[in-house]
Write a structure and sequence with these properties.
- This protein is an all-alpha fold.
- The chain has 2 domains: 182 residues, MFS general substrate transporter like domains (Growth Hormone, Chain: A); 182 residues, MFS general substrate transporter like domains (Growth Hormone, Chain: A), CATH 1.20.1250.
- The protein is built from 15 helices and no strands.
- Helix 9 packs antiparallel against helix 12 and helix 14 packs antiparallel against helix 15.
- The longest helix is centred in the N-terminal third of the chain and has 33 residues.
- It is globular, with a radius of gyration of 21 Å.
């Protein structure tokens, strides 16, 4: 069925502008990573104190995600993306100049709040653009987030290596973010233009009445799967270097190669993911992607070689790349709840998994071993694959060779 667009808007321009916002989010959060050693040295923190301080970034993001959804629903995601993008740009340099732990903690919380808010708004907006665009675009949007992650982490270091002070380098990145936000703003959908795919805005507005609409079983189901996937992906960020150093005897200078291999594989496959999702469907992508990702975990922990561990991390990046974009798309297409409500719930549950993951996996690693903890992540991904195959909103699409699941 062809969607009638009730307004004159450059849909291609809206897609490019939304892509730019995803890029901004990736650059913003990853630019903080190279700043951490500077902050630790400047404030004289030990590892434990630094860990507690870093929790404030996640706390800011988690706190604002539900609020961001309310703001998007009330004012539209365009203005929310603009304001939160500016907050990120303004607070980023502050992370390199704050001289007190209190000031640093407040700045990190505000920075995290900006990241969490723009994350909610850009995903909600991306789903609306996808609805009008007529085919899958969420994977490539998340691919640009991954590209931004690489650019941010490498870009700040490159600017510093080029002779700029860390503070000037951070301000340079902030100026870039402001320019991108301002150039993108006019191409983004305004509130009146959002949520109108298929002429369903009136229906969606009517269904938003009620304080507990977010408790719809399908929303909680997708959110729970996101929790599991974010936890497993977070294992790569928090534990891959430790695994390579302590379990595969990799030199410290090269322990980051595991996460790099995972990130590059994920970015590439996400950029190609829209055509994959369009050709098959989200249900098939999650099922087979989950099997590949789980195989990556099992390969990494079950073989004693560094090469096979890196190959496992690459498989994990390939398999997991398009799972979360499919979940966000599915949340944005639910018939009885608008994206501005569903996506914040799903995203918040996902990030809760990412925040809880390090401690939970650390407990398993302490009680048993790190390979056991990573194997648990593989089992978790398998459960996600099978659960979505059985209960997916796309259940009508058959999985080749797995008809027994339906």
């Amino acid at each position: 069925m062809t969607t009638t667009v009730p307004f004159k808007k450059n849909i291609s321009g809206a897609r490019k502008a939304t892509s730019a916002i995803f890029l901004i989010c990736g650059i913003g959060i990853s630019s903080w990573a190279p700043m951490v050693p500077y902050a630790k040295e400047r404030l004289g923190l030990n590892d434990a104190d630094l860990g507690l301080l870093l929790l404030l970034l996640g706390a800011g993001a988690i706190t604002m995600m539900p609020v961001g959804g309310i703001l998007c629903h009330r004012y539209g995601s365009r203005i929310v993306m603009f304001v939160s993008g500016m907050i990120i740009a303004i607070t980023l340099p502050l992370l390199l100049i704050m001289q007190t732990v209190t000031g640093m903690g407040i700045s990190l919380f505000i920075f995290g709040a900006g990241i969490g808010t723009i994350d909610i708004a850009m995903n909600a907006h991306g789903v609306q653009v996808q609805n009008f665009y007529g085919r899958s675009i969420m994977s490539s949007l998340h691919g640009l987030y991954s590209v931004g992650g690489l650019l941010g982490s490498l870009g700040l270091g490159f600017l510093i290596k080029s002779g700029l002070s860390p503070q000037v380098a951070a301000v340079s990145i902030s100026i870039l973010l402001v320019v991108i936000v301002c150039r993108s703003y006019r191409f983004l959908f305004n509130k009146a233009e959002e949520g109108m795919a298929g002429g369903e805005l009136a229906i969606q507005e009517k269904t938003t009445r009620g304080a507990f609409i977010w408790l719809k079983p399908q929303v909680i189901f997708i959110g729970a799967l996101c929790f599991a996937v974010f936890l497993a992906e977070g294992a790569m960020l928090d534990w891959s270097a430790v695994f390579l150093r302590e379990n595969r005897n990799v030199e410290e200078a090269w322990t980051g190669s595991g996460y790099a291999a995972f990130s590059v594989a994920m970015a590439i496959v996400r950029l190609l993911g829209d055509s994959i999702v369009t050709k098959f469907n989200g249900r098939i992508v999650v099922f087979w992607g989950g099997l590949i990702a789980a195989a990556g975990f099992f390969l990494a922990v079950a073989t004693p070689w560094v090469g096979s561990a890196l190959a496992g991390f690459i498989l994990l990046g390939i398999g997991a790349a398009n799972i979360v974009p499919v979940f966000f798309s599915a949340a944005g297409k639910l018939s009885d709840i608008p994206p501005a409500i569903a996506i914040p719930v799903v995203t918040t549950m996902g990030y809760a998994g990412q925040l809880a993951g390090p401690a939970f996996l650390g407990f398993i690693a302490f009680r048993y071993s790190l390979p056991v903890a990573l194997s648990f992540c593989g089992v978790l991904i398998l459960i996600v694959a099978v659960a979505y195959a059985i209960k997916s909103p796309e259940r009508g699409n058959k999985l080749p060779g797995t008809e027994v699941l339906t």
